[in-house]
Amino acid sequence: MAGRTTSRAAVFVLLAGWCAVVAFLVQLIVFGDHVNVFVTGAVNFFSQFLPAVACCLAAAGARGRRSEAFLVAGGVMAYSIGNLLLSVLTANDAYVPFPSISDAAYLLFYPAVMAALLIGMAREHRRIRASVAWDTAVGALGAGTLLAVVLRPAIEQVGGNPLQIAVAVAYPLGDAVLIAGLLGIACLHGGRLPRRWLPLMAGLALFSVGDIVYSLRVSSGGYQLHTPLDAIWSFGVALVSTWAVLQAQRPARARESETGNSAALIVPALANVAALGVLLAASAGMMSRLAVVLAIVTGLAAAGRTHVAYRQLRRMAELIRQARTDDLTGLANRRALYDLATERLRRSSAATSALLLIDLDRFKGVNDGLGHHVGDRLLVQAGQRLAERLRPDDVLARLGGDEFAVIADVADAEAATELARRLRAALATPFDLEGIAVRIDASIGIALHPEHGDDIHLLLRRADVAMYRAKTTRQGQCLAAPVAEGDDGGDQLRLLQELHEALAEDQLVLHYQPKMDLRDGTVRGVEALVRWNHPTRGLLYPDAFLAAATDAGLMDRLTETVLRLALDQAYRWREAGHALTVAVNLSAHSLQDTTLPVRVATQLRERGLPGSAVQIEITEDALMGDRTHATAILSRLRALGVQIAIDDFGTGFSSLAYLRDLPVDELKLDRSFVAPVSTDRHAAALVASTIHLSHSLGLRMVAEGVEDDTTLGHLRREGCDQAQGYGICRPATAEALIEWLQDAPHAEVTSASMP
Ligand code: C2E
Ligand code: CA
Ligand code: CA
User: Is this prediction's pTM over 0.85?
Assistant: First the structure.
């Protein structure tokens, strides 16, 4: 409270001071030589003393930066006292010795204000203050050089007396040092001085003009008291005080931003030009020795400063680059995407831009199963592949995790979808990670600008929803819904709650996909694939909820449900005369569950089913966790007559050697190897040797993802045992499957061969 009263008093006193300044000027203009010495002296005194008092009051009421405020107040007060002393000394026009006691008081102003600036800067700019010191030094040297030129007559006039030269030069030099310091500070603010600092700058500028003109006039004997020139210092003091009062009222916490930029090079550049000019003139013999020496020192200091500034700029550029780059892939990161997108969307000449949000499927499995370094390599390669498929002015960023984003100009929605298809195709070929082939799919959500929104955040949200739909509907890519439909945000969270209900209320259903024998075309086994009959969203596929179920620790319950449904169905089929083996997929987690063999045994017994009615599919990754544990569980299952298949074979460890030690009956070759088998020589060779090797280990080979007859024929010729895929039959409900079995001429159920 007291602080506020003092600050208000400071403002009033300052205003009074400004009145005195104006009155002083008016007096000098109107009365000129005929002034009343005492009245003018008094007005002159108040024109500087009142602002000085205002500074002191402001300092007393300052909410922070008190040391600076008091330094400035002390400096201004000393100046006004110097002014008083000079008035007294010149009151009766007596001879005034030079330098006099008034100079001592005046000159105190400079170190005080300089100290205040330094303290303030040290407080606000901890990191870059060295550069400001350099700028100030270089600027001051440059200014000194110029002063040595400008003030040459004055210096020569005072003759060889060093004290007199020093004092004569001290004023303009002090002004120059402060101005150079301010310029240095301006560089910290991107080359622009904050508006609050303008009064100080203007005040110092007036001081320099006054001091230089004064020095020259005195040296040429042309100086006269009581001209309007005398008011210039009063104006200067009032301006400096105005700055001090404003500064003291700023909250203590306010910080200046540190936006260094190329403006940091201006000060040394200017000083350099000045020094060079002096040296050029010196070569023509026009310069004093002092000026030449100062010019050389200035040049050296400026060179040093340029070096520092250059290093600083480079570091800044590097920091900016790092802050906008994804460390792993070297692509733009999320922050950069926001900037780039905003810029791109505003400037783009195309009518439509597309934001594609790309999410890798099954990435978590790679990370968990093969380790983070392999996951990292996959991300790097995925980023490279995406980059290769884009045009130079498209934007590609990694948003984090396994999420990438692309911004590209497109003709229309169809073109955007086509781009998404191309990008997915680029990711579909297996990645070679330290000799391990890993296949990854991607789901892409597409949002269009301006159709789906015009800022990047909104577009990202819509693309995210679309991406999620792409995953759940397995379309691969999906366009954002028209804006009117509203947002489905919060889907993931709701999904988890709903999963609990799904398990409790039997919303999970199984679809079955036949495995066809390639020698005789019969079907003896099917794979059970889980689906979620969602009450509002329709049929959901495993990609849409398995990861969530795993994260939520619901996988054991899910497996339990699937086993029950599969065995129920196996039982019904057997009742109807179809002795089909139902293969069930197990997660890695289930393989650590020692009660699993007992539970399977109980379920089989309850239905009176033989062990051969069920088969277990596990991935290679799942076996790597705790191999001994997994092996024990598999052995016990196998002892029940349950057959074991390695799923997605080839995407995990591609080593047949370890299979010798594992209780395994069947290998299911991953569809990424199967699909290109008739078009790609390498894939064909790989499939052939894998079939050969598996046979030599006594294992059955099943090809997954057979989509056409060419592939089927190829596999049959290579001696592959069984095949599964859309080309034979898509996963279907139990009823639809039986219909298919009965309709398909090549596929008969052979219940006779089953025990
Ligand atoms: P998976 O075990 O490799 O199952 C084969 C997947 O490939 C199935 O996808 C199937 O619909 C699909 N597919 C079959 N033929 C073709 C084809 O010719 N071309 C193409 N492109 N795809 C084909 P689905 O049903 O979405 O299952 C995805 C994955 O979800 C499965 O891969 C399996 O890892 C997991 N999964 C499915 N059901 C269960 C389950 O009950 N329990 C567990 N733990 N995982 C399951
Ligand atoms: Ca499977
Ligand atoms: Ca598979």
Answer: no
